[in-house]
Amino acid sequence: MNPLLVILTVIQVLTALFLIAVVLLQSGKSAGLSGAIAGAADTFLSRNKAKGLDAKLAKSTKWVAAAFILVTFVMNLV
Q1: CB–CB of 75/12 below 8 Å?
Q2: CA dihedral over 60, 8, 13, 75, signed as positive or negative
Q3: According to the model, what pLDDT value does residue 1 have?
Q4: pLDDT on residue 7
Q5: pLDDT-based confidence at 17, cuts 50/70/90?
Q6: Which one of 31, 39, 41, 73 is CB 3.0 to 4.6 Å from 27, fit for a cystine?
Q7: Cα–Cα distance, 30 to 14 (Å, whole number)
């Protein structure tokens, strides 16, 4: 087997696992609504922190997904 293909396969598997983890760490879109209905008392700082974390996770999801697609494309060329 081609050593380059083995390396790309390992990178693709690691990228896929990281993509799964990043997607699962994101909060759902309905999380804010259910907290408001349930009467959860969020402070201003905790809400901004959650939005910042969600924004970072959304950005990293885009980059990891792009890397996954790129590695898959390169694997198909090899």
Answers
A1: yes
A2: positive
A3: 77
A4: 95
A5: very high
A6: 31
A7: 30
pTM: 0.70
Are 46 and 73 within 8 A, CB to CB?
A: no
CA–CA gap between residue 60 and residue 32 (Å, rounded): 21
Pairwise CA distance, residues 55 & 27, whole Å: 11
Q: How far apart are CA 68 and CA 47, in angstroms?
A: 31
What Cα–Cα distance (Å) separates residue 41 from each residue in 30, 36, 38, 48, 78? 16, 8, 9, 14, 54
Of 15, 17, 21, 19, the residue nearest 72 (C-alpha): 15
**Cα(40)–Cα(63) distance, integer angstroms:** 33
Q: Tell me: the pLDDT tens digits for 39-50? A: 555 555 555 665
